[in-house]
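Apologies for my clumsy wording, but can you show me some protein sequence, whichever is easiest, together with the matching structure tokens, please?
=====
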Amino acid sequence: MSTKLYVGNISFKVTEDDLRDLFSQAGEVVSVKLIKDAATGRLRGFGFVEMATKEESQKAISMFNGNAFMDRNIVVNEAKPQERRERGGSRERGGFGRGGRR
């Protein structure tokens, strides 16, 4: 069963192929996704790497977490499930989305 890893503090010059090459040292890479800003298209400095097995994920964490990659010490840990976010503002925060104050 594959496991998704969070990879943070990534250089803004890195490519998905760069991460794939790095993480393939720990095992089979299923997928790589760098996160970009929706408005500008620029990298946000983090992404996700999916490894084929839990064992390979643990190996990648121990090999790369805190180590330098492209002049930055990257953070690698198991990704947490994505929380569901509501669209628009929130009433609790006084936002203007769906029924908020106007």
